[in-house]
Design brief:
Strand content: 5-15%
Shape: globular
Strand order of the largest sheet: 2-3-6-1-7
Distance between the termini: 40 Å
CATH topology of one domain: Rossmann fold
CATH class of one domain: Alpha Beta
CATH architecture of one domain: 3-Layer(aba) Sandwich
Largest sheet: 5 strands, parallel
Number of helices: 21
């Protein structure tokens, strides 16, 4: 049975609790897929920073639900000494789950920070049974943590140095997402199980085995060293405004590696200088960017938790020909921002940390007038548009393989570069990445696929074949679209 990443999405929609009741992941496909692949298949520390009640631990449980219980160990509510009494179980486990990192004492967080450096943690204690001092060891582990962003304690312990060593994910906190989750639960309570379940237990077990097998290949002494001939041509997808991009780029490459590990039969083996390499294909690169580029860009921009959600509340500040902010600059007080956030369905209870983060990174500026602080969108800093021309990337990859991997260049180009096909992870439809294919930050799918922000193919076809008119759009499409979704489609049409 051939597995696709789309099967992971199907699994997320069909997750069950230990008692067999449904516990699906709704509206978090991208986060769930990235967390699963990067953490399980590429040994990354992964953190979900989000508001309480937005499904952090549900996603964590889904990821670990793909593993046998002996593969992982959960750390929660431990004292600074208690974690050392679990040393044997921690050392035996392949993976570590931490559902509520903000509740852990500082001593345990220090152990996690040590692991983040790739080092084992040690402590000395007196063993009364032998009357001597012994050294205890906690082997370095990669952790999956959930952190409540509204918790000051968690934010204090989760400092910049630890964050730099982790991939960061965020749940969707909007009222629209809450509405979608509630609708699903209402339908689940009204329909037979067969209507809501779209993946059999046999399929789930097969997917679990596929993941475990991939982990086994990763741990094998003779594991392939993966190389990506497409990597040198990804510069246009990487914002470089902040130095943090230097360390974060490794996560983009690891996600692509994880995609390749998911498709082991598609990796081309080659012996070179006594080392066995596995060459990734353009397909793996496209899939990696499809599932991770949006999050990656935000991490490179040093975007605080839910910073992009808050920035959407501000209109852009225009600059004149002299480089000065225009007279039409829109300034908002924190109270006005809170009101706008509430209207947009954002559950901000504490704005200060988000505003501080946006000020520090330059996306917002502040000005004091009449004793009040006003905030406005910086005219000098914009979210860069990541764009890759896939036709150019494939052609450049061919030349690169000819020069540096000449031993297998002909086979590589024939297998991977003539016609690049993939199953879109989120829709399940087959797409072709051909000539004139390009990908902006939102990852437009080309060659037989329709962008994921459309509710159905018919809506995409209507917009694609007609001049843009918002009223005509709303009258003719089948899906239900909010203001932000309409704005996204309008910008897509214009581009």
């Amino acid at each position: 049975m051939k597995h696709e990443i789309h099967d992971l999405v199907r699994y997320l929609h069909n997750v069950k609790k230990k008692d067999g009741s449904a516990n699906p992941i709704i509206g978090e496909d991208e986060l769930g897929v990235v967390a699963t692949l990067s953490y399980l298949l590429e040994d990354n520390n992964f953190v979900i920073k989000a508001y309480s009640g937005t499904g952090k631990t549900v996603i964590m449980d889904a990821v670990f639900g793909l593993l046998p219980e002996e593969y992982f160990h959960t750390i929660e509510h431990l004292s600074e000494t208690a974690v050392w009494y679990e040393a044997d179980r921690i050392n035996r486990a392949r993976f570590i789950a931490i559902p509520e990192a903000q509740k852990l004492p500082e001593g345990v967080m220090e152990v996690i920070k040590t692991w983040g450096d790739g080092r084992a943690a040690f402590r000395k204690k007196t063993d009364v049974t032998i009357g001597d001092v012994v050294e205890q060891r906690l082997n370095a582990k990669y952790v999956f943590m959930c952190v409540a962003v509204e918790n000051n304690k968690g934010s204090a312990y989760f400092d910049a140095e630890l964050e730099r060593r982790c991939m960061i994910g965020h749940t969707n906190p909007t009222s629209k997402q809450t509405e979608n989750v509630i609708k699903h639960k209402l339908m689940d309570s009204a329909l037979p199980k067969s209507y809501m379940s779209t993946m059999s237990q046999e399929e789930v077990k097969a997917l679990q085995k596929h993941i475990v097998d991939a982990i086994g290949r990763r741990d094998d002494e003779d594991a392939l060293e993966l190389k990506n001939p497409c990597a040198p041509f990804l510069m246009d997808a990487i914002p470089n405004a902040f130095p943090v991009a230097r360390s974060k780029v490794q996560y983009l490459l690891k996600v692509i590696n994880a995609v390749g590990r998911f498709y082991p039969d598609e990796i081309l083996r080659v012996e070179k200088d006594g080392v066995t390499y596995g060459l990734l294909a353009p397909k793996h690169t496209w899939l990696g960017l499809r599932i991770y580029l949006n999050s990656f860009v935000n991490e490179c921009l040093h975007m605080p938790s839910h910073g992009t959600d808050l920035l959407k509340l501000f209109p852009d500040t225009r600059i004149d020909k002299f480089g000065l902010a225009g007279s039409d600059i829109v300034k908002m007080t924190s109270r006005e921002i809170r009101t706008a956030a509430k209207s947009a369905g954002l559950p901000f209870t504490k704005l200060d940390p988000v505003l501080t983060g946006l000020l520090m990174t330059g996306f917002l500026e502040e000005k004091e007038e009449d004793g009040k602080k006003y905030y406005f969108k910086s005219p000098l800093l914009r979210t860069p548009e990541s764009k890759i021309n896939w036709n150019e990337l494939i052609e450049s990859t061919k030349d690169f393989v000819d020069e540096y991997w000449s031993e297998i260049a002909s086979e590589y180009k024939q297998r991977y570069c003539d016609e690049v096909k993939a199953i879109d992870p989120f829709s399940g439809e087959e797409i072709v990445i051909g000539a004139d294919a390009s990908s902006p930050a939102s990852i437009e799918v080309v060659g037989g696929e329709w962008p994921s922000f459309f509710k159905c193919k018919q809506d995409w076809q209507w917009v694609d074949n007609n001049e843009w008119d918002e009223i005509e759009f709303l009258l003719n499409v089948k899906g239900d679209y909010g203001k932000e979704e309409i704005e996204t489609i309008r910008n897509w049409k214009r581009s």
